[in-house]
Write a structure and sequence with these properties.
Elements (H helix, E strand, L loop, with lengths): L4 E3 L5 E3 L1 E4 L7 H13 L4 E3 L8 H13 L6 E6 L1 E3 L6 E3 L3 H15 L4 E6 L8 H13 L3 E7 L3 H10 L4 E5 L11 H6 L3 E5 L11 H8 L9 H14 L2 H10 L3 E7 L3 H14 L22
Parallel strand pairs: 3-4, 3-12, 4-5, 5-8, 8-9, 9-10, 10-11, 11-12
Antiparallel strand pairs: 1-2, 6-7
Helix pairs in contact: 1-2, 2-3, 3-4, 7-8, 9-10
The protein binds NADP nicotinamide-adenine-dinucleotide phosphate (NAP).
InterPro entries: AKR2_Oxidoreductase (IPR053135), NAD(P)_OxRdtase_dom_sf (IPR036812), NADP_OxRdtase_dom (IPR023210)
Protein name: Aldo/keto reductase
């Protein structure tokens, strides 16, 4: 399949659909089937983080890349900032220079690669010493250990700081037709020549043909400004126009998004999502988004 690419300011060419590796099965055979199929169909972005399964997600990807000789076929993005240990579930936020410079080595070791294409701060607050964090990312970039950096954040105040004071390529944020809060920020992000990595594009399965079961299973208390009943009503109405996955993808591609980072826990899900992408990749956004409420970020504004 032909997947289109989008370029970021440091010259990284992201496939419009990426693979969110957090959701990969722990079973290596099944996970490698998904990764192999993704690459064969034109996906070139694999998204992971040191925290996912406490390093095991990076190890799974590393094993696959090495055994299948695929390092040069993909951009690998990982994330840092959560200090974890193997004894208990305690996770401590640590965006310090030392932690970042040490953690990158651990991620590279687990991934069995020499450099990361993208390294993202896995969150962040206004209270952090943000300039120290930025300095650490710039050091890694100058040293050739990463090609570009970014942040994963849904805090407008943190995003604004990084847009003004750093050379980030991308911001990863939950973004889809239901969670359309990033619309508040897309113009500013584009003005800074930065692009979005859209996580949660199918909202854990809500924006798929299986929305009805997913509402019952995962969203029985509703989500954002929607009660459970409202969700079911709005999704069934929107699904009558066109498949929800196609609508959310086409909506995202009409924003400054570098890649739609879809999670898939089975080869079938990947296949279905890619088939939906194939349907809309060169088309204009449809108007399905208009069924959904306009939602704004309420916290961390200044
Ligand atoms: N803070 C952060 O930086 C952060 C946070 C979250 C995620 N991420 C990244 O973003 C990626 C995507 O995030 P996400 O998992 O929230 O996104 P998502 O793509 O909206 O959800 C993925 C899940 O949706 C379900 N799904 C996917 N395709 C489906 C289909 N065709 N039919 C039915 N269900 C389907 C599956 O759930 P089941 O497995 O239950 O079937 C799958 O695990 C992650 O893998 C991770 O790399 C980053």
């Amino acid at each position: 399949m032909l997947v289109n690419f989008r370029r970021t300011r440091s010259g990284l060419e992201f496939s419009e659909i990426g693979l969110g590796c957090m959701n990969l099965p722990e079973n290596y055979q099944l996970a490698s089937e998904i990764m192999d199929s993704a690459i064969n169909q034109g996906i070139n972005y694999f998204d992971t983080a040191d925290l996912y399964n406490k390093g095991k997600n990076e190890e799974l990807i590393g094993k696959f890349l090495k055994e299948h000789h695929k390092r040069n076929d993909v951009l690998i993005g990982s994330k840092v900032g959560n200090e974890f240990n193997f004894e208990d579930d305690d996770v401590k936020w640590n965006p310090s220079r030392n932690h970042i410079l040490n953690s990158v080595k651990e991620s590279l070791r687990r991934l069995k690669i020499d450099y990361l294409d993208l390294y993202m701060l896995h969150g962040g607050t206004m209270e952090d010493d943000k300039d120290e964090t930025i300095d650490a990312f710039n050091t890694l970039k100058n040293d050739g250990l990463i090609r570009a950096y970014g942040i994963s954040s849904i805090r407008p105040n943190v995003i604004s700081y990084y847009l003004k004071h750093s050379d980030i390529d991308v911001i990863m944020m939950q973004f889809n037709m239901l969670d359309n809060r990033p619309e508040m920020l897309t113009d500013t992000i584009a003005e800074h020549d930065v692009k979005i990595l859209a996580r949660g594009p199918v909202m854990k399965g809500l924006l798929t043909d299986h929305y009805s079961e997913v509402v019952d299973k995962k969203f029985s208390k509703g989500i954002l400004d929607y009660s459970k009943d409202e969700l079911t009503q709005i999704l069934s109405k929107a699904a009558m126009d066109s498949p929800l996955t196609e609508s959310t993808m086409s909506y995202l591609l009409n924003h400054p998004v570098a890649s739609i980072v879809c999670g898939a826990s089975s080869p079938d899900q990947l296949q279905t999502n890619l088939a939906h992408y194939e349907q809309i990749k060169n088309s204009a956004a449809n108007s399905t988004r208009d069924y959904f409420k306009n939602i704004d970020y309420q916290d961390h504004l200044s």
